Amino acid sequence: MSILSKSQGMGVAALLLAASAILSRLMGLVRDKVISWQFGAGNEADIYFAAFVVPDLINYLLAGGFLGITLMPLLARRFAEDEADGWKFFSTVLTWMGLAALVLTTAAMIFVAPLSRLVAPGLEGADLARLQVFMRITLPAQFFFLTGSCVTSLLFLRRQFAIPALAPLIYNGCIIFFGVSLPWSGLVEGMSGYCIGVVLGAALGTLLLPLHMVRKTSFHFRPNLSHPLCRRFLLLALPLMLGQTITALDEQFLRIFGSLTGDGSVSLLNYSKRVAQVPVAMVGQAAALASYPFLVSLLAKGDKTAFFEVLARALRTGLGLILPLALWIAVLAPSTFTLLFFGGRMTEAEIVRAAPLLQILLCASPFWVLLELLTRGFYAQTDTLTPAVSGTILTLVFLPVYACVAVPLGAWGIALTSTVSLVLYSIVLVVLWLGREGRAAFSGVLVTAGKSTLCALPGIAGGYFLDAWVHPLLDPVSPILGAFAGLSTAGLLFLATFVPLGMKFCPEIFARLQERWQARRKKKKQS
């Protein structure tokens, strides 16, 4: 049985999804590097990033990012009770999701002119017309994202994580390939090729490939519009559809309000956001995706003690890793941004503007991980209402803060507002969880996070001085070479100090890797 079709345990799943998150973020950085080289932080790049606001809102409105989360618990129970009826329920959800995606996408394409003015109030004239073209091209991708989420939930239920891990790599790969090749061949101009790559990547990576894999084993779909369990599914999904939380809209706020703060702000905030999300994807998203099916399974068995243990272990590992990574990147933000984005039309002045934005957004990284894991804890208990209502209330609170306080302060004010809103949202969810479930899920979390941070401080401090010494030596030759040399030496020192100290004083955060390494060594000895 190949890795693509076999079932994986939680440790392997976490490694697969972590590897996917790392590679996907690296490909995303390559994509943004190409964009920044070609277009810098100018109008074309601002328009491209703004074109995703409406498509993303459609995805949020239909709970696309959380569709599997609401669908999996219901599907798991239904398949266990009556497999034939489980397929009927799945077919009903997929039918309605496809129809809803088609209707909303078509409506958005018809009303693209007023929508473009709403999402990018800072654009006018030719720039606004260009935005409308980009929006019309990218909107159909939501059909593939939303229907693909239904199909991917089957793979997660079967604990087949390889294809979901490949999906973001295929998606980013298509964006890069068509974004570069189509303009080079003369078929399109500017960033239209990137927009086309979005649609083709979504079709191939998030729908067609998962569909091919589920059909290889067992897949029964018949268009259907009625099933008794749909009411329960709608009640679970409705808070996610109507409740637009801080986490869902964070990136959109950066784009919408960034368009009001001057030329290039949308692009610089977007580039900074991409880098800041790398450690979050490496740690938080991978852990949340891998742990969720197991959390659902444990609750289905009625084993709440094991449920709390799995969630607590994920929180300890997640926060124990994210804090050192985020601190290291924040301290070395100027060199990081220079290495990733300097060159072409991205000037040194824009790098200077971007580095503080990255540092501000990185402050939210541990809270992103906390939110990723804690919301999965709520969702596994089929409670979608608590995160949605609390997140929506905070969204309404922060809208005037963005408009009246952040915009006058400029791009850094928007980045700071984003970070503060995420910190408050995580605090609210922690308080609500403690009041309802107690402290079991947070057992040892603060101790592990504190120890891990202390273990990282020598490597971070030493790396800062190494970079400050090495970077200027090579900067006259090439700023990119200087940044690479500074980051490389700082990174080696960080690993050489943090890993041994971490394994001695907080070994749990490396436990999974150690288990896999020991199992591999044992297997080699036996063979």
UniProtKB/TrEMBL annotation:
Keyword Transmembrane among record annotations: yes
One GO term (biological process): peptidoglycan biosynthetic process
Pfam family, one: MurJ
This protein's GO CC annotations: plasma membrane
Gene Ontology MF terms: lipid-linked peptidoglycan transporter activity
Subcellular localization: Cell membrane
Membrane topology: Multi-pass membrane protein
Entry keyword set: Cell membrane, Cell shape, Membrane, Peptidoglycan synthesis, Transmembrane, Transmembrane helix
Ranges that cross the membrane: 47-75, 87-113, 133-157, 169-185, 191-211, 232-249, 278-300, 321-342, 354-373, 385-403, 409-434, 441-460, 480-503
Tree of life domain: Bacteria
Purpose of the protein: Involved in peptidoglycan biosynthesis. Transports lipid-linked peptidoglycan precursors from the inner to the outer leaflet of the cytoplasmic membrane.
Homology family: Belongs to the MurJ/MviN family.
The protein's name in its UniProt record: Murein biosynthesis integral membrane protein MurJ
Organism: Candidatus Desulfovibrio intestinipullorum
